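Please check what follows.
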Amino acid sequence: MNRTATPVFCTIVPPHLLDKLARHDDETIAATARRTLEHDALHRTHRHLTAARAAVAEPAAALSDKPDRTIYDSGHQQTLPGKEVHAETDKPSKDATVNRAVAGLGATFNLYLNVYGRHSVDGAGLPLNASVHYGRSYDNAFWNGEQMVFGDGDGRLFLDFTIPVDVIGHELTHGVTQYTANLDYQGQSGALNESVSDVFGSLIKQYALGQTAAEADWLIGAGLLAPGVHGQALRSMKAPGTAYDDPQLGKDPQPATMDDYVDTPQDNGGVHLNSGIPNHAFYLVATALGGHAWEQAGQIWYDTLTGGQLASDADFAAFARQTAAAARARYGEGGQTQAVLKAWSQVGVPAS
């Protein structure tokens, strides 16, 4: 089923966390958070106004099995894309941030191509562009519907946003969703949009490291929090609500089951909060099946995302039913399907 790709502005650090920091007693921290929030709000508005003009890219004449990556340096300004500093055929840069961006884009391209036969974000060889050193002390990374953008972080709470490969994979997967199920960025469909990005961001890291489901940490953004911050990452798929507990950041508010579902008008209906529920369901499926999570659990989620049966306004129950249907279609009524049904039941979402 062909759909118009509707780009949305998607950040890795959720607004609720930045809201907390914007009220910090330390004015430097508070001012940095406010600037980031104001910047993100402007981009969301711009993306909303221009989304109607977006369309699926035309397929390339010949699809390459190699990524086409270009890195730009924003020079600590908020202009995009910035100055080109690295093309696909260039040797490694002297700038470690550039090299990490190149590697993360490549890791994402490789997972989608080698495992799912998908050529880049749009399935048609879309060039992968990214801008680094964006803004001053900008505490976020985002996909703006066309390219990746990375801030350097403030150094006190957040480090360089190119450090965690799963952050890069998460943001690029917003592009994959944009070109496939095109999940509305609001309420439960928005939480599913975020969750799908966490799922494949984690799988991209696991694939790059050759990890099994049992070996993976199931953290999103490990290595991003600065030394001294009490936390491991931005989110935990294994145990939502435990990623951080810090005097400055607060406590991770993600729920793991529907019993703790957060009903809020903020953050497009809590898309970064309630994503913990489908995240945990995927973790349960992956660990129940064992082995490499991208092979069976990931295949089921990919089939669901790209199969053409998932409505753009799907809620958790609709997504759960589609994952069960995808499991049956590929594996029959065996262990894979039973693992999917059990996982959704454990998080309180009906899958049948």
Observations:
- Residues 27-50 form the longest helix (24 residues).
- The chain has ten helices and ten strands.
- Confidence is low (pLDDT under 50) at residues 44-60.
